[in-house]
Amino acid sequence: MISQPVHLQLTALMEETKPRARRQNLIDEMDRLIASDLTCVACSGLCCSFEANTMMVTPLEALELFYFLVSRKLWDSSLVNQITTCISRSRLDQSPPGNGRRDFARRSYTCPFYLEKAQGCIISRGFKPYGCLAFNPHEAGLTAGGGCHSNQQALVFREEANQRSEARWNDRIITQLDLSWKKETIPVAIMAMASHFL
Ligand code: SF4
Ligand code: SF4
Questions:
Q1: 24-47 tens-digit pLDDT
Q2: pLDDT tens digit string along 123-153?
Q3: Residue 137, ligand 2, Cβ within 6 A
Q4: Which of 132, 148, 122, 128 is nearest to 53 (CA)?
Q5: Of 182, 129, 136, 130, nearest to 158 (Cα)?
Q6: For ligand 1, is residue 133 a contact (CB within 6 Å)?
Q7: Residue 118 has pLDDT above 70, yes or no
Q8: Pairing mode, if any, of strands 135-137 and 184-185?
Q9: Ligand 1, atom nearest to 128 Cα
Q10: pTM of this prediction exceeds 0.70
Q11: Cβ proximity of 147 and 137 under 8 Å
Q12: Which atom of ligand 2 is nearest to the CA of 48?
C-alpha cells in the first residue's frame, strides 16, 4: 500500500513529466490505424507474450507505469505476485546471454499486464511504454500477429521532441534510486520503483 505523502509526491512528479503529452504522437498514430479498422481485437496478443515480447523501458517509463498502477488502485498482492512470478519464470533478474561487452539476445517474457485476448493490456495509453504504443497491426483481422510492425518514424519523432527533458528525468531517477540500468524489462523495472516508493 502506498502512503499518502508518496502518492502526492508521485502525482506532483507526473504533473511535471506529462506522460500523455509525451506519448501523444504515438496515440494519434494508433487512433489513425483504429479508424482504418486496423485493431488488435481479434488477436491472441502475441506481441505481449513470451513468444514475441522483449519490451524494455527507461526509468522514466517505469516510474510512470508504477504511478498508473498505484493511482488506479491496481497495485495489490495479486499483481505483485504476477510480476515476481514473471521475473523468476523468465529469469529476468539474470543477465541475458552475452560476452560481457554486448548481449547476444534480449530476454522474452509474457507481460504481467497482459490480460487474455480482446481484454488486452491493463495500462492506459497515456502511460504505456513507447515501444508498446508504436507496435500495431497493419493488416485487418489478425489473430496471431504476422502483419504488425513498429512505427520507427513516430518513435524517433517522439524521442527527438522530448530528448532533453527525458534525459534529465532519467538521470534524476537513476541517481535517486541508485539504479544500475538505463533500460530494463518491464517487470524488473516496475519492482525497482516499488522497492523505492513502497
Ligand atoms: S505493457 Fe501492455 S502492451 Fe506493453 S507488453 Fe505489457 S501488456 Fe503488452
Ligand atoms: S495484432 Fe499485432 S500488435 Fe495487435 S496484439 Fe496482435 S501481435 Fe500485437
A1: 999 999 999 999 999 998 888 889
A2: 999 999 999 999 999 988 888 778 899 999 9
A3: yes
A4: 132
A5: 130
A6: no
A7: no
A8: unpaired
A9: 1
A10: yes
A11: yes
A12: 8
Pocket probe mutation, ligand 1, options 26, 86, 121, 186, max atoms within 8 Å of Cβ: 121
Amino acid at 197: F
In sequence order, what are the residues at sequence separation of 6 or more whose Cβ sits closer than 8 angstroms to the Cβ of residue 10? 2, 63, 66, 67, 70, 71, 197
Ligand nearest the Cα of residue 133 is 1
Phi-psi label, residue 86: left if phi above 0, alpha if psi -120 to 50, beta otherwise: alpha
Asked if pLDDT for residue 101 goes beyond 80, the answer is: no
Question: How many residues are present in the chain?
Answer: 198
CB atoms within 10 A of CB 177: 16
H or E stretch covering 57: strand 56-57
